[in-house]
Amino acid sequence: MRNKGVLILVLWIAALTPCRAQTASPNSAYAPLIEAGKSLAQNQVLITASAKDATLSEKRASLFNTAINHAFYKTRVWLDTPLDISAPLALDGSGISMFGGARQVARIFNVAIYVQFADGKTREAIDTTRDGLRLAYALERHSLLGWMTGVAIESMILNTITERLNQLSEVDCKRLFKLAEDWAKTANLLEVALERERLAGLAQLKSQPGQTAEQWKVMEAQVTKAYQQVVQQQRQPYWERSELTLPEGGDTSKEAGEALAGLLRPVFQRVSDRPVRRLAQARLLGCHVAIRQFRWESRRLPTTLGELKIGDMVLDPYTGMEFTYKVKMETFTLESVGGYARDDKGAIDKERRVPVTLMP
């Protein structure tokens, strides 16, 4: 079960009797995005343009493809529309295809950023980067799987723009730094996603027959405790966190809730550190851009990150200390110490860390 990953959390009650259809669904708020994703299904032009070995000509030509162009436009219009996801989340697996389509749409943004940089349109490339991050953030509000999809999209877009940092003018540096700073300040939506998952899961579990009020009460408490551990952990600095533990239990009448909490634990272990990594990436991007802006102004690299005068953006969220910054001649390295490594069973290994960097 541990190897099934985050999909378990979406399908953890798939074997249960389906609950009654809801009159409203949060997916309705994502209808334009869902339509855009469906229109790109098996689009060979986009598949070719998104490949690692795709040429600039292939990427540029893809943006003139009718389906791709229409999906790109529709998504950007949707991003400017207020998003209402107040309807309860339904854990029926319907969101899985939506997120697959959303990743296809995100690939258009990624291709466009590359082409815009290649054409010297850095201002447009930065604007497209912002829209790509907005797309990711909108998905992160939907559910845990949506949150995971959004984080993956952010990393994809970040990789593309990081490769082009040396093309930035001094003015571009200012604009991209503002974007990185805004990104770093966005709320951690993992807590929101977890709460929506918890409420949806409990609502469906409660609708199942054959359980006493006492059994339901125990199950609810155990499942809620599993979710609350992750939420409470998110509110602590990384260096003060303790490992997640399973809810207490043991009575045979209470095994269902305990087993479910145990099933969710490895999934939670996989996602609990991701917001810290996300923040580290946003701050590292800001530092890289600020260093380049400093070099435009002073014709040298800063001796320390303190010279940048950009506040918390120089702080590693894994330690609360400054990122590791080293200057060698005309080049530099910048790195976050990263989180603790995990073994095959998901347990933390405090003897090893996984550093976070943006540049190769």
Write the layout of secondary structure elements.
Layout: H1 7-11, H2 31-39, H3 44-50, H4 56-62, H5 66-79, H6 95-118, H7 122-140, H8 144-162, H9 170-185, H10 190-206, H11 213-234, H12 255-271, H13 274-298, E1 324-328, E2 331-342, E3 348-356
Structure description:
- By secondary structure, the protein is mainly alpha-helical.
- The protein has three domains: 24-190, no CATH class; 208-271, no CATH class; 274-356, no CATH class.
- Mean pLDDT is 85; it is low at 1-25 and 248-254.
- The protein is globular, with a radius of gyration of 22 Å.
- It has a three-stranded antiparallel beta sheet, covered by helices on one side.
- The chain has helices spanning 7-11, 31-39, 44-50, 56-62, 66-79, 95-118, 122-140, 144-162, 170-185, 190-206, 213-234, 255-271, 274-298; strands spanning 324-328, 331-342, 348-356.
**H/E series:** HHHHHHHHHHHHHEEE
* Main sheet specs: 3 strands, antiparallel
Distance between the termini: 35 Å
Model regions low in confidence, pLDDT < 50 over at least 5 residues: 1-25, 248-254
Give the spatial strand order of the biggest sheet. Answer: 1-2-3
Strand content: 5-15%
Helix content: 55-70%
Evaluate the radius of gyration. 22 Å
Helix segment tally: 13
Number of separate structural domains? 3
Which structural category fits the helices and strands? mainly alpha
Overall average residue pLDDT: 85
**Number of beta strands:** 3
Overall body shape: globular
Keywords:
56% helix, three-stranded antiparallel β-sheet, 360 residues, mainly alpha, 7% strand, 3 strands, disordered N terminus
